[in-house]
Amino acid sequence: MLTSILQTERLSLREFSLLDSNFIIQLLNTSGWLYFIGDRNVKNTTQAETYLKEKLIKSYKENGFGLFLITLKSNQTPIGMCGLVKREKLDYPDIGFALLDEYMGKGYAFEAADATMKYAKDILKIEKILGLATVDNKYSIQLLKKIGLDFQKMILFEDANEELMLFTTI
C-alpha cells in the first residue's frame, strides 16, 4: 500500500505511482480537463506511464512535492488530483486540482485544496502559493478564492493561447 501524504475527513491524498496509469488516462481525458487544462495526449498505458514518470513522479524527486492522487477514505476509490506544481516561469509553486466529473460539486476539491494549502504552509514551509485559472473557469476561480488566494494579474503563460488569471496568497 502506498503511503498517504494527507488525510482529511473524507479523503486521502498520496503520491502517484505507475499503478495509477489507468486512472490518469481517465482523468486527463475528462471534458473539464480537456477544456480548461488542455489535451496532454495521454490515451494509452504507455503514454500514461510516461506522463506519470516525467511529470508527476519527477516532481516529487526534484521538488519534494507535486500533484497527489485523491482517493475516498471509505473505499480508496481514486477521484482526482490535487497538489503543488513548480513551474520554471513562476517564482513560487501553484496549486492545481482536478476531479472526475461525477465527484464535482460535493466539496471534495475544497477539502483537498484546503488540506494542501495547510500542508504547503505548515509542513513544506512554502511562503507563497500561486493559482492559475482561465477566465471562464468559474469553479476554479471560486475555489482559489475560497482557499485564500486573491487575483493579482493576467499573465500569458507557457504554451497557452490565452491569458490566465494569476492568484496569490500574499
Query: What percentage of the residues does DSSP assign to strands (E)?
Result: 25-35%
Residues in helices, as a percent range: 25-40%
How many helices? The count is: 5
**Number of spatially distinct domains:** 1
Principal-axes shape call = globular
- Nearest-angstrom radius of gyration? 15 Å
So, the CATH homologous superfamily? Gcn5-related N-acetyltransferase (GNAT)
What's the CATH architecture name?
Answer: 3-Layer(aba) Sandwich
State mean pLDDT (0 to 100 scale).
93
Number of separate strands: 8
Distance between the termini: 37 Å
Explain how this protein is built.
The chain is α+β, with helices and mostly antiparallel strands and 170 residues long. The chain has one domain (4-168): Gcn5-related N-acetyltransferase (GNAT) (Aminopeptidase), CATH 3.40.630.30. The chain contains 5 helices and 8 strands, in the order ββαααβββαβαββ. An 8-stranded mixed beta sheet has the order 1-2-3-4-5-6-8-7, with helices on both faces. The longest helix is centred in the N-terminal third of the chain and has 19 residues, at 45-63. The radius of gyration is 15 Å and the shape is globular.
Please outline what is shown here:
34% of the residues lie in helices and 27% in strands. The protein has 170 residues and is of the alpha+beta class.
